[in-house]
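Long-time lurker. I teach an intro course on protein structure, and each term I like to show students one example going from raw sequence to a predicted 3D structure in token notation. This year I'd like something fresh instead of my usual example. Would anyone be willing to generate the tokens for the chain below so I can use it in lecture? Attribution to the forum is fine with me.
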Amino acid sequence: MKYFKKTIAFLTAAVMSLMTVATVFAAENDTVKIKLSDTEITVDGKAISDDSSAAVYEGAEIVYYKEGTDSSYGEGTENNMHSAEEAAEHTVVTITEPGTYEISGTLSKGQLAVDLGEEAEDDENAVVTLILNGVDITCTVAPAVIFYNVYECGSSDTETATEEVDTSKAGARIIIADDSVNNINGSYVAKIYKEGTTKKLHKYDGAFYSKMSMEIDGGEKGNGVLNINAENEGMDSELHLTINGGNIHINSGDDGINTNEDGVSVTTINGGYLYIFAGNGSEGDGIDSNGFISINGGTVISLANPNSADGGIDSDMGTYINGGTVIGAGGMYDELEKDSKQLYMMLQFTEDTDEVIVVADKDDNPIFAYDFPYDYTYIVFSTPKLAEGEYYVYSGGTITGTETDGFYSSIVSYTGGTQMHHGGAMTMNNKMPGGDFGGNGSRPEPPEGFDKTAPENRPERPEGEMPPEMNNGEFLVERPEGMGGMGMRDMETSGETESYAFMLSFENRNFTNVSSAVIEKNEESDKNETSFKDVADGAWYKEAVDYVYSKGIMSGMSETEFQPETDMTRAKMVQILYKLSGEQSDKASTFTDVAGGEWYSDAIGWAQEKGIAGGYEDGTFRPEQKMTREEMSAFIYRYAGSPEVKNSSTSFKDADSISEYAADAIAWCAENGLISGMGDNTVQPKETATRAQLASITMRYMNL
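-- Reply from a regular --
Happy to contribute to a lecture. Here you go:
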């Protein structure tokens, strides 16, 4: 079926062997043109073969998660299952030989697959380059584009893993053709076991997926567009992923980009334009690497799910920003590496950020401007324009200029913003010259007639509604040559400015004097303090609420209320520990009342796998059930690794009412100062735990 088998069939003599290899290489140097269609697919103008031994053929069965299966089949839930009838509606086009293939046309239900055979992984000639030139593929049961078997140029050795990898010889290669718009709309495949085991046979989380390292380039002009709309994750590689060029837009239901080899994978961005919104589901990081992230150039806008504690840029082994323009926003902050070669700035917000944020240097020269579509707690940005010195941050107001996806690559005017500063009175009459706002000079402008120049002209998104699907790419036309920004902004503010809590950090990069009101605490404001109206200054839980809020572990129930006395549920407790761990997991739980796709699904699956939550004898977890104080102690204790406890007895007057399973946990928590009991020296193990109590025990645990 694969090119290896066909080549071996011709090896009848040494001379024939050399001739066959030469033939294979000659074929690789030619570009094969595949025209997709729901009615007729052609390869170099001829009808596609249905013979699996052909270089390109139609008719392979699609890999999908079958409905009606039980837990012995895999880890999918009912939400992951598809019928045989739905799967059969899909046409699979499979490439089996190395070479360059130009893809165009439409498959309204189909998949483009690359499979050179299992031997390909170790053969450096097993390279397939896909030139996307006006392709539109939709798959509702699996990834729309998938590389199964090609050459793997990288190593999975954790001992030698670093943030720098060379994927120039990757067997999975993509070129986004100039002047083209390409749309990939895909689903995913939950983990399917090898028969009779719990080992992975199939698991493909992304709409655009590669089992091997993958490299993506733009054309000579670099204006080609790749739109990915993903039911689950957007673009995935099981080892490394490198983006060198092109314009890539990703709307995803989970992580926008994921590279998933623990401690090894590297997501590298060297150029091009990348926009990610991971907000089409209940959670999702913008860019998530189980290894490293290295950004060296281009423009990167990475927005996490605004309703979860995920980050715009998240890596397990370290994120390095060495160049380019980078915007990352989310509900958590994954610390950037101090060895990054380019300075970066991190802002922490406790109030609305769904508006224009403008950063100017001490002379009010523009550095950055972005119109955020939703509220985010942490915003990271970096541009080559950042230098040591003092900066001002403005919120709101009216801005006009060249804007795409909320990012202003130039500004014509800006008025009416509020300077974010901790207290104090000031009078300003500043002039802000226009100019480039950190863009790479190749940012496209919206098409004629599409007015996105000011925030009030941007269509409002009702609560819960996500950005429209990017199915035509018309807003990504090329900016007229030589077009830049110029003009002045006059702003006058007097009196006391808004006290707006935020934090700027350059992580010991000798970035001094970044406003005394920013890094250091002062009498009028503390970067850790919250402004919840129901958390009084003298409340016993005030410090704990401030602490967990500032760390991004717990948020308010609304913008103005923390609701400290609200009862905690078992699902919310597990979600907080999951968030605290910083881990990522798609392990499905076996609990009968925990469906996939819920906001707590991953957290409960993770907690079960780690032995933190065991559930009930009837096989349920009961996520919405109120959590007792002894359950809270037990979860924290197990999260800590269930340390040895020499004496399970405590001095609490109601110690006899503690359940056997929680005895060690409560003893350990009391011994380590995590709980101190109520005022009457009781622990009240069966009483419901409140949000204030959880904030308190979490803060104490984090400070152990």
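Some talking points for your students: DSSP finds nine helices and 38 strands in the chain. Confidence is low (pLDDT under 50) at residues 1-28, 421-528.
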